[in-house]
Amino acid sequence: MYRTHNCGELRKEHIGEKVTLCGWVQLKRDKGGMIWLDLRDRYGITQLAAEETNTDRGIISKIDKTGREFVIKVSGEVIERFSKNDKIPTGDIEIKIESLEILSESEIPPFTIIDNTDGGDELRMKYRYLDIRRTPVKNALLLRHRMAQEVRKYLDSQSFIEIETPYLIKSTPEGARDFVVPSRMNPGEFYALPQSPQTFKQLLMIAGMDRYFQIVKCFRDEDLRADRQPEFTQIDCEMSFVEQNDILKIFEGLTKYLFKSVKDIDINYYFPRMTYSEAMEKYGNDKPDIRFGMTITNITENVQGKEFVVFDSAEYIGGICLGNGSEYTRKQIDDLTEFVKIPQIGAKGLVYCKYNTDGSFKSSVDKFYTADDWKTIAAKMGATQGDLILILAGEKERTLHGLSELRLKLGNELGLRPRDTYAPLWVIEFPLLEWDKESSRYHAKHHPFTSPFDEDIPLFDSDPAKIRAKAYDLVINGIEIGGGSIRIFNRSLQEKMFKNLGFSKEDAEAQFGFLMNAFKFGAPPHGGIALGFDRLCALFGGSDSIRDYIAFPKNNSGRDVMIDSPSTISQAQLNELGIILGEVK
Ligand code: ASP
After folding, report:
1. What is the atom index within ligand 1 of the atom nearest the CA of 449?
2. Is the whole model's pTM more than 0.90, yes or no?
């Protein structure tokens, strides 16, 4: 038998018992004739002790040989510790070593395996199996496990059934590039890895399964950011005979259930619902962080016509108001101005006006605006004495984006975005289509299977950009946690949609014939949603990076530096697949 207990289990009640533990040596200390070892496993750390003079020489020499990260098996008596450690649950006791066996030796690890490690990112990823031994990473995986169990419990209780869908499929147009896989048995042909199981889950509804879910890997060949990975996990769901409200209710329920069961947080209110256009107008963003105010006000009509060319020539002028900001120094305002000029925001400048506590105004454009003008602007923005008004002008979409970024930056700096406060909401009524300048055609804002509002269908022929979609996103703290839609379930509407997306009849048939065909055989009204599981875990764990919650993540270039992938394959493999490598064009 390897062990009687694990390393996180022993307490005062066990004093006097003979036990056997196994684990990794985290630390060895040698002081005044005593040797202590910290023995670690997944469950915790237990201190082992040996008194040099009273312990068998054989044991002492084995302890001498033992170094960091050696795997050992130790037997001995549980005794009370002389100096207790209240930072760990086993801190009242230690094991008096009576036998010790080295099960596996270790080289000196490339970084110290402790909570605050000295290992850099790349090194930790290269030796991810060592990184996972560290408590923060281990705890992240435990949290992920707990979340997955709770998701299953809740969805099962709501009659969802878990069904696996294939990974080797035909591409689904989710908007990103597909990863493709050649097929030896079908030379010249390729599978695609699913960007999501979208078409399959719809087919499962046509198959009568009624409620489907899957915690599933999805693959998108996109440029990576901190919260993106080429392969990531979704909680993917689909339901039959539902309207938008039914879906929001179930998944609001899931979110609340997870907060309660995993974090013991009660959310006793309905999640607010905000239309896409309201989110864009007020927050400049379709995933607003509503933990704090500082919303955007459109002041275009209040500031134009005063001879200030920058404003007069702008499509849109908007402002945010910083409570008690009139005390901001020149330097602080200069920093904000520099911020809005960074290329990602691209504003030409920042106009400010201090609404001083004595009721006077001091702005960067005093030449053009009187105190009365500012009074009107301040009233429109809800600014009061002591506030700072910050204004950006330019092309509407870009300016709203700039204001959004400025707002979020100020929110961070002012501590208005605390990690342990959660503000969920639904963003609804997205546009169905989005005009893409580059390709001069409409793209589906969500995906091509999303249903338009019934009353907007005639707009296909007059003003497609105005069509609203039965689509919704779940947003928490400015993070898009998930999104979904009510689907089109009738062949002719689906054809119309493809046509508007620029598909020829033949292309639509070649790519989606299987789904369109299925619509011929009795498709129920249906809809669904997918939640980003990695993101949800990161949010619950209080981290910005989903990588912390993935056991073996890829780096920013999409590489797995541990197994060194992607990698070349042999000529024999290429020959078998009939692939000749050329230059990337
Ligand atoms: N398949 C969609 C996505 O991955 C979600 C959905 O519409 O259910 O974004």
Report:
1. 7
2. yes
